[in-house]
Specification:
With 421 residues, the protein is an alpha/beta fold. It has an 8-stranded mixed sheet with strand order 1-2-5-3-6-15-7-14. α3 packs across α12 and α8 packs antiparallel against α9. The model has no long low-confidence stretch (mean pLDDT 96).
């Protein structure tokens, strides 16, 4: 991104933190969880209801809605220059089945608060501003995560995304149409001057360091490796120990291998096994097959690839020694993004100007910004969350943290959009 020519916003430009906080908790009334959080999974009736409320708020603020064929909402505020590319700001409103109130939601509604504040102050910008709600960021109902932004950035095809099914066999495309949010706009046709996203950290670093703002310089690359260990089902009581082909032992040894690989690459990488299916999963049958997914992440591409290569070399040997077979497939991946240096510096400068403590940070989780970074200058702002807890109904932040994050985002967006007059 070319260096901004406009003057930086003055430190007196502040959002209405109380209004933002109230808006977040009004959205949480839709699709409430069972323990105080949220359950607005993508393209469900609850998602549709949340979208309608967001649409109303945006239209009340004078924004004009566009919806693409993946259901992503683009809420447009006019700029003074009709030829200037828009500055996009946003995140996602969909949640995990037992999600918190802030993951994604903060970033979308902070974008709305930016527009409301600009309206309150009668401030015009050269570039239009577009508040964005990306569809299916979570990927919990329809894998993978960040689906709509991935299609926008041409990492997935729209047909492939439409065909993805949930646990009940319902397709994403059919469900998107059923809830009435399949738009007509071609996905990825929009050009962006910049994209900025505010998100809770989803980790413990900012809170532990006592920092108000995380300035995200990179995202972690990711490899999801679906592995299958195949042995032989047999009776646990009557099969002699030396004659067993126990797929569960393969899982156990590969679990330790994954931990060892991640520890050998710490602190610049992480890894674990999350999803596990054991077959036939009976108390008195030795497992004949285990299917599980390894999640490796690092912000260094060479390191990430080397971790996968080591797994591919050592896991088959471990299994061979046990008399079981190993196979694998990479089912999810993206390379580590490096965010736009000019936008990143504008976030640092805004933090200083507004008096907020800050530190550079690497995003441990994936976000829509990670895909959009491939097609436009992109940056992220993070705020702390209590105990680093997310994807949990107990996820929590303070009003002060949300206000600080939104104000830094506000300044970075306005600097990119350039105040007129």
């Amino acid at each position: 991104m070319q260096e901004q020519k406009s003057a930086a916003p003055g430190e007196n430009l502040r959002i209405n933190g109380d209004r933002l906080w109230d808006t977040i908790h009004d959205m949480a009334k839709i699709g409430p969880g069972i323990a105080g959080g949220s359950n607005r999974q993508t393209v469900t009736d609850e998602d549709a209801e949340g979208r309608r409320l967001f649409q109303k708020w945006c239209e009340d603020a004078g924004l004009i809605m566009g919806v693409d064929q993946m259901g992503t909402m683009f809420m447009h505020r006019e700029g003074a220059d009709p030829d200037a590319l828009p500055v996009y700001v946003g995140s996602h409103l969909d949640t995990q089945p037992t999600g918190g109130r802030y993951d994604g939601v903060l970033g979308v509604l902070a974008g709305l608060e930016i527009v409301r504040t600009l309206n309150d102050m009668d401030i015009k910008t050269k570039h239009p501003i577009v508040v964005t709600n990306w569809t299916n960021e979570e990927g919990t109902r329809f894998a993978p995560a960040m689906m709509a932004s991935g299609v926008f950035a041409k990492q997935f095809t729209q047909e492939w995304a439409y065909a993805k099914t949930d646990a009940e066999g319902k397709s994403f495309g059919d469900e998107l149409e059923r809830i009435g949010w399949k738009g007509e706009e071609e996905v990825g046709a929009r050009e962006m001057h910049a994209f900025l996203e505010l998100h809770i950290e989803q980790g413990p670093i900012l809170e532990a360091q006592g920092k108000d703002i995380g300035v995200v310089t990179h995202g972690q690359g990711l490899r999801w490796i679906e592995c299958t260990v195949t042995g032989k089902e047999s009776h646990t009581g009557s099969t002699p120990m030396p004659m067993r082909k126990n797929a569960g032992r393969g899982l156990a040894q590969i679990t330790e291998l994954v931990h060892e690989i991640a520890m050998d690459n710490a602190p610049n990488a992480v890894g674990a096994i999350g999803h596990i299916d054991v077959y036939p999963n009976s108390r008195n049958i030795i497992p004949g097959k285990v299917v599980f997914t390894i999640d490796f992440r690092s912000h260094e591409l060479d390191r990430l690839n080397a971790m996968v290569a080591r797994l591919e070399e050592e896991a088959p040997r471990l299994c061979e020694a046990l008399g079981v077979e190993f196979s694998h497939e990479i089912v999810g991946q993206f390379d580590p993004p490096e965010f736009d240096k000019t936008l990143v510096q504008s976030i640092r400068d805004a933090s200083e100007r507004l008096g907020y403590s800050h530190m550079d940070i690497i995003s441990g989780a994936g976000h829509d910004a990670c895909w959009i970074n491939r097609v436009a200058p992109t940056a992220m702002v993070m705020c702390p969350c209590v105990d680093g807890l997310s994807h949990n109904e107990a996820e929590d932040i303070s009003k002060e943290w949300s206000t600080a994050g939104a104000e830094v985002l506000f300044h970075a967006v306005v600097e990119a959009a350039e105040i007129v007059g």
